[in-house]
């Protein structure tokens, strides 16, 4: 006879041995992805994988994010190719818990950021072709698991003000038009389904709300995420 506790821990083990329930947290720059992940830190069955921005800011001493913002035509390709690598590493990382919560994914890198660089001519068509072949290879040959996408939907002018307030040095010259373009690309991917690939069902949350009200909004996603934490 198994005790209740033993059965529970068996479920936990089998749940994560098969594979974790995997959630991508997506949304424009400044939409509160990091805050959303922090909300779930209190639950022990969830592994949080925050975006590797610090790695992008320091690769052997080089700040690729800064180089990219200062001279996008020159550094866009290098930056996006490193973003792909760090994203792939996150997708592949095994977790000790039944739920894995990831900030962004290689899909938003491709369908939002690379797409923007291609459309605006920042990437040469040949550079875009190389990144796109890598993307196709990775998504076709390596199984990238996703069970749910939480889309933190925002209004461009709202996140624009937040970005100015938080004053991340690299983002100081980001124009509102860039934020608007990224907004449209997120909507095209997650709401209008313009790309073949939307790897999981999408839960849309109102992320315009300010910090005092956002916890209630975040809570709306708890049952979908936590019921998987057996
Ligand atoms: P949060 O917590 O919602 O405020 O999220 P952020 O703004 O810390 O994170 P994110 O991913 O929206 O933006 C990170 C910075 O990297 C931002 O300046 C945009 C820039 N970036 C350029 N290309 C890419 C890309 O392919 N992927 C991601 N994630 N960021 C990129």
Care to describe what's here?
The protein is globular. The longest helix has 21 residues, at 72-92. Helices cover 55% and strands 12% of the residues. It is an alpha/beta fold and 230 residues long. Strands 2-3-1-4-5 form a five-stranded parallel β-sheet. The model is unreliable at 1-16 (pLDDT under 50). It has one domain (4-226): P-loop containing nucleotide triphosphate hydrolases (Rossmann fold, 3-Layer(aba) Sandwich). It has eleven helices and five strands, in the order αβαβαααβααβααβαα. The structure holds 2'-deoxyguanosine-5'-triphosphate. The site of 2'-deoxyguanosine-5'-triphosphate has 16 residues, from helix 2, helix 5 and helix 6.
Annotated CATH topology: Rossmann fold
The count of strands amounts to 5
What ranges have pLDDT less than 50 throughout 5 or more consecutive residues? 1-16
- What shape does the CA trace take? globular
**Termini gap:** 20 Å
Short description:
The protein is an alpha/beta fold. It is built from eleven helices and five strands; from the N terminus they run αβαβαααβααβααβαα. Helices cover 55% and strands 12% of the residues.
List keywords for this structure.
single chain, 230 residues, alpha/beta, Rossmann fold, five-stranded parallel sheet, 55% helix
Topology, pairings included?
Elements: H1 4-18, E1 21-27, H2 33-39, E2 46-49, H3 53-57, H4 64-70, H5 72-92, E3 99-103, H6 106-119, H7 125-141, E4 148-153, H8 156-166, H9 176-190, E5 202-206, H10 211-219, H11 222-226
Parallel strand pairs: 1-3, 1-4, 2-3, 4-5
Bound molecules: 2'-deoxyguanosine-5'-triphosphate.
Residues 27, 29-34, 51, 53, 65, 80, 83, 104, 109, 113, 171 line the site of 2'-deoxyguanosine-5'-triphosphate.
């Amino acid at each position: 006879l198994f005790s209740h506790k033993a059965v529970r821990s068996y479920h936990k083990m089998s749940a994560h041995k098969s594979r974790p329930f995997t959630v991508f947290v997506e949304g424009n720059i400044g939409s509160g992805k990091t805050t959303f992940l922090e909300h779930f830190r209190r639950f022990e069955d969830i592994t949080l994988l925050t975006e590797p921005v610090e790695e992008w800011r320091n690769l052997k001493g080089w700040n690729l994010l800064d180089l990219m913002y200062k001279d996008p035509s020159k550094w866009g390709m290098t930056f996006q190719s490193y973003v792909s690598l760090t994203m792939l590493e996150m997708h592949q990382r095994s977790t000790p818990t039944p739920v894995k919560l990831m900030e962004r994914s290689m899909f938003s890198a491709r369908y939002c950021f690379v797409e923007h660089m291609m459309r605006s001519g920042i990437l040469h068509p040949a550079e875009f072709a190389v990144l796109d072949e890598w993307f196709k290879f990775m998504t076709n040959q390596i199984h990238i698991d996703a069970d749910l996408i939480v889309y933190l939907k925002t209004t461009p002018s709202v996140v624009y003000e937040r970005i100015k307030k938080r004053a991340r040095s690299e983002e100081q010259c980001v124009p509102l038009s860039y934020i608007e373009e990224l907004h449209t690309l997120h909507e095209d991917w997650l709401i209008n389904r313009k790309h073949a690939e939307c790897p999981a069902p999408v839960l849309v949350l109102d992320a315009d709300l300010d910090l005092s009200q956002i916890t209630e909004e975040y809570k709306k996603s708890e049952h979908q995420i936590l019921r998987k934490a057996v």
